[in-house]
Automatic annotation (TrEMBL):
The keyword Ribosomal protein does not apply. One of its GO terms (molecular function) is DNA binding. It comes from Enterococcus hermanniensis. Belongs to the LysR transcriptional regulatory family. The keyword Transcription regulation applies. One of its GO terms (cellular component) is protein-DNA complex. PROSITE patterns: HTH_LYSR. InterPro entries: LysR_HTH_N, LysR_subst-bd, WH-like_DNA-bd_sf, WH_DNA-bd_sf. Pfam families: HTH_1 (PF00126), LysR_substrate (PF03466). This is LysR family transcriptional regulator. Residues 1-58 form the HTH lysR-type domain. CDD domains: PBP2_LTTR_substrate (cd05466). Keywords: DNA-binding, Transcription, Transcription regulation.
Length: 290
């Protein structure tokens, strides 16, 4: 049985949206549909009902989901253990991380650990927050560095390293540029430049705008911070970004101002409870002492 096909099924059961699952799996909507149809044929069972662009798990799909989650989890546990046996000793620290790791204290902590343990090799894998959570839940990764606003996964352990919050980035020529702080309400008629849903930083901005009493005008969405900053520089809109994820240069002629209302995100290392990896637990003990 194709494990990836099962992972797509688990993902779609969470999102109930082909487009969102395609983004999280870094594939096309058509491929997601093919994987699900193939699995349904293999199991000779209808897993989802589809009507008016809305999908739901069937009763059989809900039953299958419990077994599939166990199969995928055990597969990745087996794979991780075989890697440990093949290498003879656990000296490779695998960390899956958001792309902006280097901007945060978590990166400094990793480097400090490696300096104290020169026998350890670091392997980083970048992914957006949505994908990192899915990887952790499905047992693909033992250790993750991610961002969250709320964390409701009781089968994991979390060590928070710092917090970050939103700022508005726009040109110095803008009438609001001389202020020290902005009310979001003042940006009601501005064009917003936001990060994609997979970063989990788009919806919080929309929620803050609703809290301020308006629907934001979203001009562009991207996964690249540098592109959003360049668009702000070209006066194509106002980028709403996390304050520590970028650094402005004087020649950019941009300002980054705190906004109200705001919400703090937490940056943290996360691992599954009762993980048996020696290197992960050694790193975890080191984190606790920092």
């Amino acid at each position: 049985m194709d494990i990836h096909k099962l992972e797509v099924f688990i993902d779609l059961s969470e999102t109930l949206n082909y487009t969102e699952t395609a983004e999280r799996q870094f594939t096309s909507q058509g491929n997601v549909s093919k994987q699900i149809i193939s699995l349904e044929k293999e199991l000779d069972t209808k897993l989802f009902t589809r009507s008016h662009k809305k999908i739901e798990l069937t009763e059989a799909g809900r039953v299958a989901l419990n077994y599939v989650q166990t199969i995928v989890d055990q597969y990745h546990q087996m794979k991780n253990k075989l890697v440990d046996l093949r290498t003879g000793s656990e000296t490779i620290l695998h960390i899956s991380t958001i792309p902006t790791l280097i901007k945060y204290e978590g990166f400094t902590t990793i480097m400090s650990f490696l300096n104290k343990h020169p026998e350890t090799t670091l392997q980083l894998r970048e992914a957006e927050t949505d994908a990192l959570v899915a990887m952790l839940e499905h047992g693909e990764n033992r250790l993750v560095f991610s961002r969250f606003f709320e964390w409701n996964h009781p089968d994991t352990e979390v060590l928070i390293t710092e917090e970050d919050e939103f700022v508005a980035v726009f040109t110095k020529e803008h009438p609001l540029a001389k202020k020290s702080e902005l009310s979001l309400k003042e940006l009601e008629h501005e064009r917003f430049l936001l990060l994609r849903e997979t970063s989990q930083l788009k919806q919080p901005v929309i929620d803050l705008c609703h809290q301020a009493g308006f629907e934001p005008i979203i001009a562009n969405v991207s996964s690249r911070i540098d592109l959003l900053i360049q668009m702000a520089k070209e006066n194509l809109g106002i980028a709403i970004l996390m304050s520590k994820t970028f650094k402005l240069n004087p020649e950019d002629h941009l300002v980054a101002l705190p906004i109200t209302p705001n919400v703090k995100s937490k940056l943290a290392f996360i691992k599954r409870k009762n993980d048996t990896s020696l290197i992960v637990n050694e790193f975890w003990d080191y984190l606790k002492k920092q």
